[in-house]
């Protein structure tokens, strides 16, 4: 929730472009139909309700940036990943906003 508030008020100082240059994986946690309507190039679509079943698709050695439509589901996804031992996870918020930052 705090990440979503930071994103809303422009307080997030994460350099997402640099993370992507360093090999971060962008995980879009919206539904398949939302994703098919538009997404960030090379992002991975794993709906938030399927994330725990698909952890094997994600490396704990890479930075992960979560995104969704507004930042709420991506905040949940960040928490799920951190609770499963992923250390370098960032909530990128809404995918369109994130796309403009990278």
UniProtKB/TrEMBL annotation:
Question: One short Pfam family name for this protein?
Answer: Rhodanese
Gene Ontology MF terms: transferase activity
Signal peptide positions (record): none
Transferase: is it a keyword of this entry?
yes
Give a yes or no for keyword Cell wall biogenesis/degradation in this entry: no
Q: Which PROSITE patterns match?
A: RHODANESE_3
Q: Which domain of life is it from?
A: Bacteria
Kindly state which keywords UniProt assigns to this record, in alphabetical order: Transferase
Q: Which positions fall inside the Rhodanese domain?
A: 20-100
- What InterPro entries would the database entry show? GlpE_sulfurtransferase, Rhodanese-like_dom, Rhodanese-like_dom_sf
PANTHER family assigned = FAD-DEPENDENT OXIDOREDUCTASE, PYRIDINE NUCLEOTIDE-DISULPHIDE OXIDOREDUCTASE
- Under what name is this protein listed? Rhodanese-related sulfurtransferase
Please name the source species. Answer: Chryseobacterium limigenitum
Taxonomy-wise, where does this protein's organism fall, top ranks first? Bacteria, Pseudomonadati, Bacteroidota, Flavobacteriia, Flavobacteriales
């Amino acid at each position: 929730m705090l990440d979503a508030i930071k994103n809303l008020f422009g307080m997030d100082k994460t350099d997402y472009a640099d993370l992507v240059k360093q090999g971060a994986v962008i995980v879009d946690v919206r539904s398949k139909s939302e994703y098919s309507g538009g997404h960030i190039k090379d992002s991975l679509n794993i709906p938030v309700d399927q994330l725990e079943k698909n952890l094997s698709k994600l490396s704990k050695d890479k930075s992960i940036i979560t995104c969704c439509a507004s930042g709420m589901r991506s905040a949940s996804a960040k928490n799920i990943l951190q609770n499963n031992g992923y250390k370098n996870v960032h909530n990128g918020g809404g995918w369109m906003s994130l796309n403009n930052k990278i």
